[in-house]
Write a structure and sequence with these properties.
The two termini are 28 Å apart. Helix 3 runs antiparallel to helix 5. The model has no long low-confidence stretch (mean pLDDT 95). This protein has a single domain, classed as Spore Coat Polysaccharide Biosynthesis Protein SpsA, Chain A. The protein is built from ten helices and nine strands. It is globular, with a radius of gyration of 17 Å. The protein is α/β, with parallel strands linked by helices. InterPro entries: Cytidylyl_trans (IPR003329), Nucleotide-diphossugar_trans (IPR029044). Keywords: Nucleotidyltransferase, Transferase. One of its GO terms (molecular function) is nucleotidyltransferase activity. This is Acylneuraminate cytidylyltransferase. It comes from Hymenobacter rubripertinctus.
Length: 244
């Protein structure tokens, strides 16, 4: 069984262009993202587009020895399926690169649980039953389920958002697992989509050593500092909120 994390990245963004290469404390958000993911113990693969504007991301990957696949800018589902095939993955963790504070150890534990279940029809995530802050999202599923979605999902929205065919159980054969915590912390927002999000992340990374904190420590920090939460509290999540 070959497990790996595929993170999707692009330079285009309507609300915050070039966001993954913006910096905090002299380090790019993408560097923080990848560093955190490596704590999972799993290999990480970058899935970007063939658009010229994303050449910088392909160069970034090449300079760091990060395996990279370039595919469609709009059909992200095909990009994921091709990345999984290219690198021979049988278990896929899907994340998005605008989440610089993802908890790699949390992801690693989830994948261990997933593999122990040994069920290729299982879709495991912490986003359908949301108790973690936005920006800590991940999904785990088999190459079999990914290939099925790629073969059967037809709408532009399904293709753009990768997993609706799975988490809406269009086949009727998907089984679900949920990664949750006892107390709901979904009110917090740690994703990078707007200037206020960037402002909060910079404060957390530069003043509170957030890059070294676990998900639980990040949540405790936000609970203790409502003035930090207020920085991006007014941001409305885009309508399709789970898979970015």
């Amino acid at each position: 069984m070959s497990s790996g994390i595929i993170t999707q990245a692009r330079m285009g963004s309507t609300r915050l262009p070039g966001k993954v290469l913006l910096t905090a404390g002299g380090t790019t958000m993408l560097d923080y993202h990848l560093r955190r993911l490596r704590a999972s113990g799993l290999p990480v693969y970058l899935a970007t587009t063939t658009l010229p504007e994303d050449d910088v991301l392909a160069d970034y990957a090449r300079q760091r020895g990060l395996p990279c696949f370039r595919g469609s800018s709009d059909d992200v589902l095909s990009r994921y399926a091709a990345t999984a095939r290219q690198f021979g993955l049988t278990t896929i963790v899907r994340v998005t690169s605008d989440c610089p504070l993802l908890d790699g150890e949390l992801i690693g534990r989830a994948v261990a649980d997933y593999e122990q279940a040994a069920n290729p029809r299982l879709y495991l995530s912490n986003g359908l039953v949301r108790t973690y802050p936005r920006g800590l999202d991940f999904e785990v599923f088999s190459a079999e389920l990914l290939a099925e979605a790629h073969a059967h999902a037809t709408s532009a929205s399904d293709r753009e958002h990768v997993t609706p065919y799975l988490h809406q159980n269009r086949s009727g054969r998907v089984e679900f697992g949920h990664v949750t915590r006892p107390r709901d912390a979904s009110r917090f927002r740690l994703t990078l989509d707007t200037p206020p999000d960037l402002a909060l992340l910079r404060v957390l990374l530069e003043q509170h050593r957030a890059a070294d904190l676990s998900a639980e420590q990040l949540i405790a920090l936000l609970e203790a500092h409502p003035e930090l939460v207020a920085i991006n509290a007014e941001i409305e999540q885009q309508k399709y909120d789970f898979t970015h």
